[in-house]
Amino acid sequence: MNLLTQVLHIVGSGASAYITARNLRDTQTRPNLLAGFQLAESGSVPFLEKLRDRAFAEGDTWLAEQLGRHANDEKRHGQIFAQALKRHDKQVIDFKQQAQQQDKQDKKERQRSPFFDAYFKDYSAEQLKAENIDWIVFMGSTYILELDASKDFVRMANVLPDDDLVTASTKKGILSVAQDETRHAAYLLEALHRRLTPAEVANIIDEWRSRKVDALLAMVSNFVERQGQMRSLVQDAAPSETNNETELTELTAA
Predict the structure, then answer these.
(1) Band of pLDDT at residue 235, cut at 50, 70 and 90
(2) Which residue ranges have biased composition labelled Low complexity (predicted)?
(3) What is the CATH number of the domain that holds 204?
(4) Is the pTM of this model over 0.90?
């Protein structure tokens, strides 16, 4: 990674960290951020499960087992963030019902992601499907995302105070997610080394690090253009009467 990329990485990561930390610290914006994490973590499960099945079919049992565990982790992460939302008496909105009330063009506009548009620039949607994606592309791109997420989640958790049950429980859950992301990054790096030489691995990591820098800058630029306004992902939920601490302990111990 050259000096310019390193500088831009610091700038982009710093801006992104500031935005997410601010949104998590603010009780008004925290539920929307938690909902975004719930959707992202849960939404990756079908993709990972298809990759697991593909790896089994191709005879790579080790990779298939790693992907299976990864998918199970993401399911649990979605539940952790869903519980965090319940503590704020919120839940993710019903997108199916909402979609019926809006035309396809609006829906397409809402689903655009400046971050992923930039991160996977020059790759078509067809190329990125689980049945088609090049294994090296998957491993390299996901390694960077998981590695950075493991650090980002720790930073975000540390902005939450420990002096009340709601934030303390949310913090504990986020730190548990961070530990899993660290393990995911480790197996993806090992997977790269199983297929490539050290020099080739370094080149792949540099490529996806550079793409991540471009993606972060695109995301921050979009955030500025929208003047910090984010589409709402949550709706009110009935107050929870469950023992959240017990549920969280079960999930983080899974």
Answers:
(1) confident
(2) 241-254
(3) 1.20.910.10
(4) no
